[in-house]
Structures are given as structure tokens and as C-alpha cells.
Amino acid sequence: MRHFPPFRLDSNNEQLWRGSREIRLRRKTFAVLRHLVEHQGELVTKAALLDAVWPDVSVSDSMPAISVRELRKALGDAAQTPRFIETVQRRGYRFIAEVKLASVHAPTAPAARQSSFAMQTQQTSFVGREHERSELRGALTDATSGRGRICLISGEAGIGKTRLCTEISREAEKNGVAVLVGHCSEQETVPYLPFIEILESLVDHGQSPDDLRRAMGEEGPELSRLLPKLRRMIPELPPPMELAAEQARRQLFNSFSNFIARRSREQATMLVLEDLHWADDSTLALINHLSQRRSDWPLLMIATYRESEIDISPSLSKTLEDLVRARLATQIRLEGLPSIQVAQMLQGLSGQAPPPTVVNEIHRETDGNPFFVEELFRHLAEENRLYDRAGQFRPELKIEELEVPRNVRLVVGRRLGRLGEGTRKILALAAVIGRSFTFELLEAAASAKADALLDCLDEAHRIGLIRSSTQYPEARFEFSHELIRQAILTQLTVARHRRLHLEVAETIERICADTLEDHYAELAHHYSQTSNTWKAVIYLHLAGRQALLRSAHAEAIDLLTSGLNLLSSLPDTPERDRRELDLQTALLPQLVAAKGDASREVGTACGRAVELCHRVGDVSRLFPAQFELTLFHWNRAEHETARTVAKDLLVRAQRGDDATGLHAAHCLMGGASFWLGEFAVAHTHFEESMAFFDPRQHRALAFVYEPDPAAGALGYWGFTLWCLGFPDQALQRTQRMLALAQELALVHPSSLAMSLSHAAGVHFLRRDAQMGLARAEAGLALANEHGLRLWEAIHRVHICSALVMRNGQEGILKLKDALEAYWARGSRASNSILFGGLALAFGMTGKFEDADRTMAQAFSFIEETGERAYEAEVHRLKGELLLIQDTSHAARAEECFSSAIEIARGQGAKSWELRATTSLARLLDKQEKRDEARAMLAEIYNWFTEGFDTADLKDANALLDELGG
């Protein structure tokens, strides 16, 4: 037996011990350690290690380095500041710790690893909750029979939610059910944290790479997004598919669901998700996804949460409401224990039957909250206020006279005050680390000797403040209750709090240097509590990018925004600007997805990103930022500003002879020109845009310029061609647009949702309501499936606008709701025609005051924004509205139709001219001015060379026949 504190090496039995715990190593890794220890102080070359450990096997020269890396992790060593194994650059390794021969008997090996519940130390006897346990047993029986169940356990802090889960978990495991446990955390900004904990516990279960590969199955590539260490353990794991954000999230959810489904079919499973009141939005979304699919799995999901309003976030409230309303979950609410069960608790704690007066007094003070009962009992016992000299309960107890703290946190605080100073310091450091902590991290952060640290932990363990478990690969402790950790933290000064966070962060960096990606969120949290702002920003950025990789968009926004907020406090330097640009460009697409292209947050981020690109000279990111900035102004109906930004982009692309940039810039210039009513200019730009389109780059471009510029150009080109009088060519562009969008449908559904919207718009312009509705309904279904809120709102507007004339007042209300959802995202483009159509609908239902007010809004909007694409049609609609109100308004209506014709002619908008002329011709016919009507209608009708099967041209032709008679 060789001893190098705090480790012992038993060469005969091939075991490495730390105290009473065996550190499990692969055989070859153990052989490397044994060889190094046996040659302590000597340089051992890589060649010597290969000969000693792999004598008859041909392996890569990197194998010694891999084994040394594993050893450093097991020993808590660091390559930069080694305590045990020193790297001699380019030559080999040297074991530098002092080694002594020791005649110490190896301790008994710990029991095989169990679930985290089963490994917790023995608690006080469990009392009561018979009804709740019966409910959970029934759910477990259903689940093991293949009828998946969900149970939601709620109650105040300390009421016994976790303890109830512990009891049912033990029963489940005795019956061969696998128990998987994950926790949400108040301080750790790790999306999907409970599911990551579950995956990590499975991965760390001592599996060989082959076993792990089989366990992960086809889901491995996607699950590696949640657990990066999978890629280190299975290096050949294929990368996840490249998908658009919303599609990637769906793929991840499906893969995790498939993984859980497969495991539960192999062995009935209980999934316990603790402290849901701290769950992030992504965790709740994944829970909701699992709930929709678990019905035929042998799976019981149990989630615990605090039910007070202060603890329930809007996201959790909605998730719970959806689960209960859809009858997907059973609610179990825990109340305080009755007096008789408090008596049973006190008897279990004291070993003797308590007098009724003591029971009643403690029940009154605690309302039967089990954790408070136990803590108050410990406090009173330590204060010598419960027992007489004979060790029996005192017959009377008046708590209000004893200056006992009035809540759990204060009671815990009093008990902490009786700990030794060293233990209090260690617990303070542990509390800063988090709800649970490893011995290795605590030891390294405390810079304490192992024996002294263990003494402190033993003291805390004895009085029930922490629990321990012997887990592979590292010993882990956790606070017996989160309220205990919170009580410890409240006793720290601000300065001490910051210092401890700094110590923890620096320790994680030191001892986890090779696996920092597993700790980005932890490091971001710890550094954010210190004065090292720069490090906090770096890790917030890394954690934000990791959240994006996991399709956790809301959490990514929070992390990246926090980084930007901290960065704003630092002095202006080129390095600061580059870091901010990194954060802004990572944040921008997430804001677009969450808030919409036209939100103020998107505009601010776009503008700042463009400014920073200019400052640091980053052209590669300038174009996508300007593209998004143009769309921001475009969707807010700030069309002149949109054209200015697009023109700057076009000039830069022309200077650089950048075909990709020219494709995107001409698309934007065409769109801006369309909205300004300059249809011929728009047509030219769209022709130029598609001339620079390279089909080989199509997929890649859709991920740089979102939405897809090619689909956008073709869609708006379709609108433009219809306005110019070419309805068949408009339809052809639309069909080509849909074909391109279908190529991206699996990886970029937002481009298809946009294309279906444009296609619906072209069909409605052609007055083909049936096809328009079909496209809009398909787009709405797609948007709902993938959570595309902007396109969901736009497609609803399409559908309600088409149906409003048919459904009267009900249709108007639906259209107004759809418009409110559209406007809520900051979008205003096309408001001119939307107001005009809504005004006509009011008129058709006799609501003339509403009609006049809404029509006035349409004209005001046109003058305010310069959005003139639909100006001619708005004038025509006003004329039709006047005729609906009163035939005496014929003269004013004629003026409106004439204005519409004049505007359309000025824009070269032959389709708008035809529609306005047809309206005017009908009016003139009623005024017995048939010759004038026939002449003007024939002139515009005869101009057309296509689209004779469209409703507008059919109506015009029919009217010409009437006028000719």
C-alpha cells in the first residue's frame, strides 16, 4: 500500500482510495498511475509508459496523455499547478507528490451506486401522508402497466414534498422501477438543468464507452447538445443536424422524448423533477412536450413546486394550468400535518412520547410544517428548554415566552451560530457553490487539508445540516434543505459573499480546465457576483451560446442581455467593442424570434450591431446586421429609412463586388421600393437580386440572412408583378418561391411560413380566395407547429381578412383580434390596406361611424409613413364605402375612383388601375354615361396580355359586355 495524502494506492487489488471511498479508474488508467507512483520523482517518458502499460498492443501515442487527463480529474489535480502529476513538455510525466509505504487496511468498499434519493442518509421516520402516498402508488401502478402518469406535488417550503418523493422512490426501486432525479435551481442559469442532471447521472454510472454508446442510441448527437461531455466520451459521435432555431428545438425535444421512452420500455421509470418553481422556460417547454407523448410509456413523472404566488412564475402558471386543464396531470397539495402526526414526529425525534401541551404548542407555532417542526425541536433541545433534569419532556411549554425565532430561517440561523468557526466558514463556501457540491471542489476552494475539512463536514452532518452520498466518480454533498442554505447566505456580508464567489469561480477554472464547457453557466453566475466584470461577460457569452446550442432561446436572451448590461460599465476599448459585437450578433436572431422583426429591442440591437461593425471594421457581420435593420424599419412601415439602410448595403456590396451581398441588397431595395409604390424600380431590383442568386449557397444563406432572401425577393416580386399588370407572371414567381422554400422546410420552416404568407397574398390579389385561404391555413398550421409567432399573427390576419365579409360582425371581431396580435409585435407594414378593408367591412355591417374613423386612419397612415403600395386601392375602397352609406354620395365616390385611377397610372400599377376603373365604370353606368364608361374600361382592359381567368379581368369583361349592349 502506497500513501500520498489524501490518497492510498493498493497495487495488489488495483484500487485507489480516498478516505473510505474508492476512486474507480479504468484498468489501464490505474496501471499508468501505479507506474508513475512506483517511479516517484523520476521522469517517465511517454514511450516508457506505452511499453509498461500497453506492451503487446498497438495504440495511439496519445493514450498516455488521455490516461493522465483522467487521473488529474480523479485526483483533483491541474496541469498548470500540479500537486501530483507534472508534465515535462514534449518528453513525459513525473509524479511529484511525496509517496510513503502504509500498512493501512483498505476500508470496506461503498455500496453500489443507487439513485440520489436512496443514497441520502437516514432521516427521521416518515409520518402521515397516507392519502398522498396511496395516490402516488396508484399512479406508479398505472405507469408500470404502460399508462404514463404525471403527478404535481405542491406546498409551501418545508412541507415535505421532497420527503414524500423520497418515500415513493424507495418503494419504486424495491419494485424494480428505475428512479431518475433532477433539480431546478434558483441560482444556476442552466437551461434544462433537471434533465441535464438526469443525463449526467446516467452517463457517470461507470459505463464503458461501448455501453454508453448503446445507451444513448440514435439520440446521442442531439443529447450531446445538453451534455457536452458525451462528445468527449464518444469522440466519433456525429454532430447534430444544422437546423433553424425553432426546428432545432423541436428535434432536441423529440430526441430526449425518444430516449426516455426507450429507457422506460426497457425498465419502468419514475422521473422526479424537483423545485419546479425555479424552472427555466425551456425546462417547462420540454416537460410540456413529454406530457403530450408519455401516455403509452411505463413512466411516472413527478414534479414538485412551491405554490405561493411569489414562487409561481407566469410560465410555470401556464404550464400547470395547461397540464391540469387537459387532464394530463394529477395535483397533490400538501398541507401541514395534524397534531397527532406532529406527535409522532416528536416521538421519533426524541425517543419518547411528548405531552399534549408540547405537541399543541409546537403544532401551533409551526402549523404542522414538518421541516419547521424538526428544526424547532432541535433548537429547543439545544437550548435545554424541552427536557427536565431526568431527560423527560417538561409538562408545560410556552414558546412565546422563550424568545424562539418566529420562522424556519431564523431557527436555522440560531443553530448555525453554535457551530465551530471553521465549520461555519466551510458551510458558507459550500452555500455559495450551490445546493449541492463535491468534496473536491470544496477542498480546492477552501485550500484546506482533507482531514480538517472532513471534520467540519462531519459536524454539519451530525446535526442534520447536510447530507452525503458516495457517488462515482466524486463524493457529493447537499444541504438537507434549501432553507438551510439560504439561512447561511443571509449571514454573509456583501464583501464576503463576493469574495467567496470569486474563490469558487477561480477554483472551477483551475480544477476543471479541461472541461470548462461543462461549467460555463456556473462560472457566469459566480463571476457575475464579483468585481471581475470582464470574466463575467466572457462566461455569460459562452453560457448564452451554449443555451443557443440547446435551443433554449429565452435563457440565451437573459444570459446575453446580462452580459451586455455588465459590459456597458466597462471603459470603451476596441476589445470591449469586439466583445459587445459578439454578444449583439448572438442576441439579435433570438430577439427576432422572441419579439418579432419590428420590436424596439430588435431595432436597438440591430442599430448597435451596425455601429459596432463600423467601429471594429467587421464587414462579414455588417451585412447581416444591416439586412435585419432594414427589415426592422420595413416592418415598422418606416419605408424611407429602410430604403436608406438598404441602399448603403447595396453600395458596399457593389464596391466589394460581393455577389451574395448584392443578392440580399437588391432584395431589400426591391421591397422598400414596392412599399413606396415605385413598382417599376422594385421590379428591376428583384430581377437583379435573382440574377445574383446562387442555388448552391441557398441553404447557407438562409442561416445568414433570415428570412431567406431568395424566397423574399420572389414573394415581393410576385406582388410587384401583379400591381404592374402581370398576374400570371406573379403566380409563376410565387410557385418558384414555394419550391425554394420547400427545399429548406425541414431545416428552416420560417422561410416556408413566410413564403406561404406571400403566396396567400398573391392569390388574394388575384381574388382567388379559395387558394389564398388554403395557403394561409397551411402557413398558420406550420407557424403553430414551430412556434413562429410573427407568421402565426400574419396568417391569422390573412384568414380573417378573407372571411370578414362572409361572417359580418363576428368576422370583424376576429379580424380586430388578429390585427392586435400583429401590431403587438411592432409590425405596421400593410396597415393602409388593412385599415381600408376593415373600414369597408364596418360599412357592410352598417357601422358607418366606425367605418369613417377607420378609413381616416388608413389615409393618415399613408401620409405618415409613405406606404403607397396600396394607396390607389384605399381610395377605391373609400369610394365603395361612400356608395354603401348613401347613393347621394355618388359625386364624392366618383372623385375617389378618379383619384385611385390617377395614382395607379402614376405608379404604372395597371391592376390597381383596372380595379378602380371598373368601379368608376359601374358608377357611370348607373348615371347613364355608358359611352364614357365603356371607353375608359376598354382602354385599360385591352392593355392586358395575361390573367384573363382572374376575377378582376372577368368582371371587367362582363361589364364591357353589359355596356356594349
**How many separate helices?**
43
Q: Say which CATH homologous superfamily of the domain at 130-206 and 238-333 is assigned.
A: P-loop containing nucleotide triphosphate hydrolases
How can the largest sheet be summarized?
5 strands, antiparallel
How many extended strands?
A: 16
Kindly estimate the percentage of residues that lie in beta strands according to DSSP: 5-15%
**Proper CATH architecture of the domain at 130-206 and 238-333:** 3-Layer(aba) Sandwich
Q: Report how far apart the termini are.
A: 116 Å
Oligomer: single chain
Q: What characteristic shape results from the CA principal axes?
A: elongated
Query: In the CATH hierarchy, what is the class of the domain at 130-206 and 238-333?
Result: Alpha Beta
Gyration radius (Cα, Å) is 36 Å
Specify the structural class: alpha/beta
Task: Name a few traits of the molecule.
16 strands, 965 residues, Arc Repressor Mutant, subunit A, single chain, elongated, alpha/beta, Rossmann fold
Question: In summary, what is this structure?
Answer:
This protein is α/β, with parallel strands linked by helices and 965 residues long. It has 43 helices and 16 strands.
